[in-house]
Amino acid sequence: MKRKIKEDVEIQIVSPITYNDLYVESLITEWAGIPYAQLSVTLVYLQFLAQLHKTHHWTSLGDPFYGDHLMFERMYDAVTEEIDTVAEKAVGLGSAQNVDLLLVTSQVNKLVSSFGMSQTVPTTTELVRRSFQAELTFLKSLEVLSESMNEQHVNTMGVENMMQGIADAHEKHVYFLKQKCKRGM
C-alpha cells in the first residue's frame, strides 16, 4: 500500500497539470466564428504535440536513451497521421480557413509558451514529464472541444468517432509516459 501511495504522489509531483477550460475556449474564440473551429484547435494541439515529441526524440540521452528515443518517435509518428486526418476533416466540413497557417502557428506558439518551454535542453526525466503533462492536457482539451461541438450541434458521428480514436491513442501515450515516470527513469 505504501508503494502505491508513493507512486501516486510521485506522479502528481511529476505532472502538475496546468489546465484551464477557459484557455481552450479562448483558442476557439480566436477562430472568429469559423465553423468547426474546434477541429482547428484540435489541429493546433496536435501540431504542438508533434513538435514536442519530435524535439524530445532528438534530444533524449542517457541510460534509457534508445528506448526513450523510440518512444518519442512512435508518439510523433502517430500524431503526424492524426494531424492530416483532423486537417482534412476541418477543411472538408468547414473550409480552408480552418487551417490558416498564421493562426495555427500563433496558437502553437501560445501553447509552447503556456507549457513554460525554455531554450535550455532539459534532462531526459524532464522530457518525459513535459510530454506526460502535455498529453494529459490534450486529453482534457479534447473533452472541452467535443462538448463545444455538441453545444453547437456540429459534432457528427464521423467527427465524434475521429475524436474518440484520437483520445484512445493519446490515453496510450499517457500510459507509457506514466509508466516511465513511475519507474523514476
Written description of the protein model:
The structure is a single chain. The protein is mainly alpha-helical and 185 residues long. It has one domain: Ferritin, core subunit, four-helix bundle (Ferritin). It contains 7 helices and no strands. The chain is globular and about 45 Å long.
List the helices and strands and how they pair.
Blueprint: H1 2-14, H2 21-29, H3 37-59, H4 65-93, H5 101-114, H6 124-151, H7 157-182
Helix pairs in contact: 2-3, 3-4, 3-5, 3-6, 4-7, 6-7
Summarize the structure.
With 185 residues, this protein is mainly α.
Biggest beta sheet attributes? none
Q: How do the SSEs run, as a string of H and E?
A: HHHHHHH
Q: Which strand-content bin applies to the residues? A: under 5%
The helicity comes to over 70%
pLDDT under 50 segments (min length 5)?
A: 1-18
Content-based structural category? mainly alpha
Radius of gyration: 17 Å
Q: pLDDT average, as an integer? A: 84
User: In terms of quaternary structure, what is this?
Assistant: single chain
Question: How many distinct folded domains?
Answer: 1
Distance between the termini: 22 Å
CATH architecture: Up-down Bundle
Q: At the third CATH level, what is the topology name? A: Ferritin
Write the CATH homologous superfamily: Ferritin, core subunit, four-helix bundle
Question: Key features?
Answer:
disordered N terminus, globular, Ferritin, 7 helices, about 180 residues, mainly alpha
